[in-house]
Structure formats: structure tokens, C-alpha cells
Amino acid sequence: MKLASISYQGADCLALSIGKDQLVKASDAMTACFGRDAVIPMDMLALLQQGEEGMLNLARALAFAESNPERVTRFPQARVQWHAPVRNPGKICGIAMNNSASNSRKISAPEHPAFFLKPASCLVGHKEEIAIRSYYGSVHPEPELAVIIGKKMRDVPALDAMDYVAGYSVMNDITGNGMRAEDLFQYWAIYSNEEDPDKTHRVEQHLSYAARYKGTDNFGVLGPWLVTKDEISNPDDLSVECKVGGETVAQDSTRYYNYKVAELISFINQFHTLHPGDIVSCGTAFKPSENRKSIHNANFQQVAGPVSVSIEGLGTQENPVVVEEKEIGLWRLN
Amino acid sequence: MKLASISYQGADCLALSIGKDQLVKASDAMTACFGRDAVIPMDMLALLQQGEEGMLNLARALAFAESNPERVTRFPQARVQWHAPVRNPGKICGIAMNNSASNSRKISAPEHPAFFLKPASCLVGHKEEIAIRSYYGSVHPEPELAVIIGKKMRDVPALDAMDYVAGYSVMNDITGNGMRAEDLFQYWAIYSNEEDPDKTHRVEQHLSYAARYKGTDNFGVLGPWLVTKDEISNPDDLSVECKVGGETVAQDSTRYYNYKVAELISFINQFHTLHPGDIVSCGTAFKPSENRKSIHNANFQQVAGPVSVSIEGLGTQENPVVVEEKEIGLWRLN
After folding, report:
1. Secondary structure of residue B246 in the 3-state scheme
2. Given an 8 Å threshold on Cβ–Cβ distance, is B158 in contact with A333?
């Protein structure tokens, strides 16, 4: 199934892909299949919180709608406004430097996945405008596979991790590498001594903070679809493509990720409980295309959109990019 | 008003401080004051989403309950289970290195606030157990003032920022500085050239990722209360104290923050939309106490709890600390 969160005729709803380029409301299919008493999830998060039963009911409703076209109303995809499939995820974990193509650029790096968080407030959907501002500095796209969690999980080993996945989506993990260069600290950290915690010692440490360069409004494009996992036989071998202004800037595959999907989810899960609707964005598939253009050439301050990201089996998202000429507001009191 | 999210007699509810060490259910006070048709917010987030009107109605209901004690049921604070006052905030922004006491340890640093995100899934409430694991490495408390947003805001200048604040709470921004030292990268970043985006150049950059060391389960203690802003005349001058195992490890004040509350919110707001219930944790108030003990001596792997954080006017949170001897699970597939 391909599920979407949309607005149609002025109302937000959960919709399902049906036939060619058409949609049906989840509520319409559910009512046609199960009658007026059907328990209809309010939105994608509510559906995911229903667990496997909710998804199975929806699959039955879709099958019913496909075989009984006179019982439901179809409408064209072109007529709707798209939102991120999960509009209000509890958290979005983004994996850093997970592409083997970046390994040669690492002078030193951990031997496990490292990750940052993006806020739900940064999300936009397919076709929505990516508005950025001149004071953000350099901003580029990062095409990524997003995994959507379907069941609450904690301490799940890699071998079992895929049982907790509801499906996949396409993420453009838009990154302000200009701001990234600004939010760096070099400082003397203090640690307690291993033998005697009453004594401390200083360690020189470089720290950087990602909330601004990864979490600014419009820095996460998710969608168009949540594609249920039964449609994707191997998430660790999907081709990924990114275009900016019609030119290809990444031609890659999830098979070049350093860590597989199950490993990423399982590693995070040794520290964080994951809940239905939580998203793990697996890292940038950024191998340059044959024309030698890369995402690093696609600074939105310099290069006009639209930007599109396609992943095999998950569809294509395409968004216009708008740069607003603007100075930062008066955030100091004096 | 002092508001809390609690469980009492097996049910979750929103409660208000009334009299000495007692509580009243928000629903009880609202019904007593406004009758059976009162619109009762489901939880703190729902209350905050009602905006100022919701808060004013609740204040009227509390005043009614105080003057009509026979019309409501009071119960002792000691009988309830506390949760984080906002259990499911849309985002938690944590400010890095905002204490002037850390300035002398900075070799280089930005000239604006830098911030990271903590997930809602890491939150626990007053009295709840802080369970950490041996494989997390060194973990210490960070006592902080938390600001809770009351109205959707974007691009609000510092001078107007306080109009958007609903209230304050106490945050223990628990930090795994062991994991912090592990999630560091030194690498060659690629940037487009300013004149010609088709050309790129390499820049050596140190990056670090905070989601693990700041966002692991139980790494955020919030509460006991959301204290409405009318009770706090100056959030930029509140004393802060942190104790571990009965010993004081921080004796500080929010007046030593580099940036004032209004500046922090306003700076974030030039990048992120803030929504009702979002939390800004203003940075660690970590000046060592007179006994020369500091939070850096309070490695939970070595020093037994409980840990408490008190902020002037906002109350005291106290939590037991439990260390589980445990190895990390099998997150690799082979």
C-alpha cells in the first residue's frame, strides 16, 4: 500500500493510492468495506498507533475498494495538497555520514552510527515550497531513505529489528552547511577521574550542534508516500536519485550505506525507545552523477530548483525552492 | 498557578497545586466553576494549544476552588505519580554552553546561541527513576531553567518574545559525556565555491552528534511543575541548585547565562517555528558549590543518587538514580 497525508477539498485526510495516479480517502474505503461503525484512524500517526491490525484492516478496505469501484470515490493525485505522510512524528533520527562514499574523507570517526535529531516542525510534503532565507547561508539537499517505525521497541537486536518497521518514505534531509560551519566549539571539557570521581581532568574537545543546520523550518521534505514494507523486498538495495533544476546531482543506492537499515534501527534502540511514527532517516545517498555534479554543487542560494528525490519503489518527491532575501531579526535585547 | 501532569488512582490527569502540599484535578475545578459543559483540556499540551483563554479559565477555576473548598476534592501530592508536565512536546531545544562560567574554557565558539534537540521520549517526571546502563559510560546531571512556549511564533524579536511564553519548569538535562566523546568526526567537508557553484573545495571540519548523549531514555527530567509566567517576575535572575547523593554539586543563578531567556527564544525563532508546548532549556547552571564539588564530579556510574534540582520559584525535582549492569545488544547483523 501507498499511503499519503493530504488536504482535499479543504479537509485533511489519510488517502491511499488506487489505480493510475488516483487516490481514495481511507475513511471512504473503510466505510465501504466495514460499514458505518468502522474505526477510522484520524491521521497517519493514529493509524500507526493501531499497530498491525490497523494496517491489515486498511489493506482489506483497499482491496474492497479496488474490486468495488462503484462504492468509493476516486480523485486524481493532481488535485490534492500533499503533506509529510507522518506530520507529527515523535522524533526523527538522522544518521550522519552513513555513505561509504564519504569514508575516504573521514580523518577520524566512530565505529558505530552517529545520529542527530530533526524536529517535526521542519517537515514539508511533496510539492510544498521549500522557502529558505538569504541569512541561512549555503543550503543543500541530501537524498535519504526514511524508515517509519510501526511498533514500540526498546533493545531490539538487529536480527529482529525489521519486524518493527511499518514502511518507508523518501526524505530530503536539507542541510545548512553554512550554519554547520558556524555552530562549532573548541573547548576544554571536564571529566571525572576513573579512579576518584572527586578529581577531574580537562580534555580538549571539538563539539558542534545540529539543531539549526538540520532542523530549520522546511529542512525536511518527507513523502509523497508511506509505502508499507511488504512492497519493498530489500531496503538495503534501492536506487536513489536527486535532481536540482533538472540536473542530476546524486545517483546512488542504499547498498552503499555503511550500516544496513536493521543495524541503524537496532543501534538507536539500544539507547532510545522508538515509538510508532518515529522516523529514522538512513543517511545521504550522495554519489555524484555521471555528469560529475554532486549535492555539494547544489547550493540553493546559488542554484535554482525545483529539487526532486526519487527512490526505487517509493516514488518521487519534487519541490520548488524559493530564496527570500531577508536579514536575521533583532534577537538581542540591546 | 502551578500545573502538573500526574497519575492519581490509576488515571492520568492535569492537576493544580492548591493549599499546602495538595493538588486538585483541573477537571474537578473546571466543572465546579463552569458546570458540566466546561471544556476540559485532555492534557497539558491540549491546554497550551487553547492559548491564553485556556489558561485564564483554569485560573478562574482555581480561584473558585480555593474559595469553595467544599466543592472540590483535594488530595496530597505525596499520593500521586508525577510525569513531565508536558509529556509529549513537539520539540525540546537545549542551549549549549550558555553559562558564563564556561566561557574561559572556550578556545573558539560562535557569537550566538548554539542548540541541540532532545526527544520527548527521553523525558521522565519528578520522583521517577533515572535508569542508566553501564554501557552508556560517564553520565552527569545538568540543572537548567526550561521555558515552555504558549503560542505559535516565528521571527519574533527579543523585545516581544516573552509574550509567547506560557511558563517555566525545572529541567535536568542529563548528559552522557562518555558517549559525547565517542560521537566525534574529523573529516573533509565539501563546500561549493562562492563565485562558481560548479566548483567545490574541501574544508577540514570537526563535527559531533548529540542525539545519543543528550537524547537517550531518561536523559531529561522535567518538573515537577509548569509554573505560569505571572509567578516569575524575572526569569533571568533565579537561583539554581543541584544535589547528588545529598551533596551540593551546583550553586548558580540564571543571571550568569550568556544570553537572556528572551534572546534564546528569539534566536531559535529566526530559524524554527515554535509551537505551544515546545520547550527551550536554557543551558546548564553549573557553578560549583562552596564545597568545590561540581556536576563533573557527579558521574552517575560512580556516585549514587538521588539527584535533585531546585530553581527559585519553580520548586524541586528529586529522582533516584539506578545503574543497570548491562552490555549493549547485538545491533550488528554479522
Report:
1. coil
2. yes
Q: Among all chains, which residue has been given the C-alpha cell 514500540?
A: A152
Domains of chain A and any CATH numbers = 2-82 (no CATH), 92-191+207-324 (3.90.850.10)
Distance CA B37, CA A55 (A): 36
Considering only CA atoms, which of B298, B300, B321 is closest in space to residue B248?
B298
Interchain pair B114, A156: CB under 8 A = no
Partner-chain contact A209 B209, CB within 8 Å: no
For the beta carbon of residue B114, count every other beta carbon within 10 angstroms. Answer: 24
Its pTM stands at 0.97
B162 vs A: CB within 8 A: no
B71 to chain A, closest Cα gap in Å: 37
In chain A, the residue whose alpha carbon lies closest to the alpha carbon of B120 is: A90
Q: Which amino acid is at A112?
A: H
In angstroms, the CA B158 to CA A332 distance is 6
- If we measure between CA atoms, which residue out of A179, A154, A168 comes closest to residue A282? A168
The predicted structure's pLDDT at residue B198: 87
Q: Which residue has the higher pLDDT, A102 or B223?
A: B223
Q: What residue in B sits closest to A293 (Cα-Cα)? A: B198
A118 to B117: CB separation less than 8 angstroms, yes or no: yes
Range of weakest confidence among A109-113, B125-129, B240-244, B286-290? B286-290
Q: What's the DSSP call for residue B328?
A: P
Are A331 and B263 a contacting pair, CB within 8 Å? yes
- Of the candidates B119, B154, B207, the beta carbon closest to that of A117 is on B119
CA–CA distance, B254 with B101 (Å, rounded to integer)? 11
pLDDT digits (tens, 9 = 90+) for A74-110: 999 999 999 999 999 999 999 999 999 889 999 999 9
Cβ contact (<8 Å) for B263 and A159? no
Interface of B with A in 204-233 (CB under 8 A): 204-212, 215-217
A287 touches chain B (CB under 8 A): no
A167-219 confidence digits (pLDDT tens): 999 999 999 999 999 999 999 999 989 888 889 999 999 999 999 999 999 99
Q: Is any Cβ of chain B less than 8 angstroms from the Cβ of A77?
A: no
What does the pLDDT look like over B125-140, one tens digit per residue?
999 999 999 999 999 9
Could you tell me which chain A residue has the CA closest to the CA of B195?
A: A302
CB proximity A284 to B under 8 Å: no
C-alpha cell at A145: 531513505
Q: Please, which pLDDT band fits residue A291 given cuts at 50, 70 and 90?
A: confident
CB neighbours of A77 closer than 8 A, spacing ≥ 6?
Answer: A17, A21, A22, A23
3-state secondary structure of A87: coil
A158 shares contact with chain B (CB less than 8 Å): yes
ipTM of the complex in this document = 0.97
Other residues' Cβ atoms within 10 Å of the Cβ of residue B137: 17
Beta bridge partners of B252: B240
Residue B93 in contact with partner chain A when CB distance is under 8 A:
yes
- First vs last C-alpha separation in chain A: 55
Q: What is the nearest CA distance from B116 to chain A, expressed in angstroms?
A: 5
Give the separation between CA B239 and CA B241, rounded to whole angstroms.
7
Q: Calculate the alpha carbon distances from A47 to A54, A149, A251, A267, B89 in Å.
A: 6, 12, 33, 26, 20
Of the candidates B145, B97, B143, B88, which has an alpha carbon nearest to the alpha carbon of residue B118? B88
Q: How many CB atoms lie within 10 A of CB B327?
A: 9
